[in-house]
Amino acid sequence: MDNLMAGRLQMATSLGFHIVFACIGMVMPFLMAAAHWRYLRTGEERYKTLAKAWSKGVAIFFATGAVSGTMLSFELGTLWPEFMRHAGAIIGMPFSLEGTAFFIEAIALGVFLYGWERVPRWVHFGSGVLVGIMGVLSGILVVAANAWMNSPTGLDWVDGQATNIDPVAAMFNAAWFNQSLHMTLAAFVATGFAVAGIHAWQLRRRPGSAFHLSAMKIALAIGGVAAILQPLSGDLSAKDVARRQPAKLAAMEALYETETGAHLLIGGIPDPETKTVSYAIRIPYALSFLAHGDFQAEVTGLDAIPDDEEPPVPIVHYAFQLMVGFGMALMGLALLFFFFRWRRPAALQDRRFLLAVALATPLGMLAVEAGWVVTEVGRQPWIIQGIMRTSEAITPMPGLAISFYLTTAMYIALSFIVYWLMTRQLQVINRAYDGQLTTA
């Protein structure tokens, strides 16, 4: 395994694990705050217990997110020194601000965890909300730095050097808003449905449990709203990518030839050798409309992209299809949830519905992972779009394959520890709430 492949795999593995921890760390505080709000309004003990239980989950994922995030910050410097030599001064602002948000989040989390009966109840509630706000802000700032890699602004690139650097313009680049909106909604979808799925499975095993039914409703409500809004965000992102990164859009859709009135593909198996796509469902003119708002608009294909600047089409296309497919499935489940809650509340405890929610547990996280594959692999061969190639940024340090294997082993071990801690917490809750039923 050469250095470039080992470095890319290590970064992909680190990001793949960290993004799960980060998504949960961003959204779980809002679930916790929602349960706390219900307790303050109703006085029902189960909501207080739910808020406390979820706060322990927040603490666990806050700690693991800090570990994995620290690993990533070191990897940026050790694996990609040439990138950081040029980009460090440009994207340093969002990372510095993210550090500030992280410290505020840590303080607010401490107040919430240890503030029960010690601080005024609305101050206590506000600290929980602040944890969520700072978590989301941290995510937005990191995504803004990544968006700069897709849409580099705030500098002049002259003779291989960055000059006239404007960190504010770099942070608020052309891609930051669409990427941040799409990623934030994705985090709410993924976490909401993951939490709902866990409680739905427990509700199947413990029919009528007031605790798990309340938890599932809160998680599905928050994740469901985000799932319904996500296609709108996706449309904005697609139009943005069509303008700035036509090669990425062409790879997403496996569009090998530039077309006027381009068809949208659902599924399909692309063949890079013959530059064809088999077994796809084609929707006439839909891609032109989605990309440019005009059914007859021209969409740039891979034939207009130099061969050495083409992304790996099959990987990007399959990842895009998975992201969209999982997202649409979760949106459908969200609409069903809201219909049941409005017209048939009893159906929320139907075993078939609970099974569907339970089976959807990993879909949001898988969609997030697929989306990041589209974002990062779709930009290749560039680490900074149009400016620096990934191959130019990798460290010459030998032995990266060993580093990749050790890092992967660490993340796997960390994941097992998190799984054990969360399972243990769930067992404690079940022992406390077994036998408590509801007719809600």
Brief write-up:
With 440 residues, the chain is mainly α.
Structural class determined from secondary elements: mainly alpha
* Order of strands across the main sheet: 1-2
Number of strand segments: 8
How many helix segments?
14
Number of domains: 1
Round the mean pLDDT to the nearest integer and report it.
87
Order of helices and strands: HHHHEEHHHHEEEHEHHHEEHH
Residues in β-strands, percent = 5-15%
Rg, rounded, reads 23 Å
How far is the first residue's CA from the last residue's CA? 57 Å
Helical content class = over 70%
Enumerate the spans where pLDDT stays under 50 for 5 or more consecutive residues.
435-440
- What shape does the CA trace take? globular
Q: Largest beta sheet, briefly? A: 2 strands, antiparallel
Give structural attributes.
440 residues, mainly alpha, two-stranded antiparallel ribbon, two-stranded antiparallel sheet, 72% helix, 7% strand
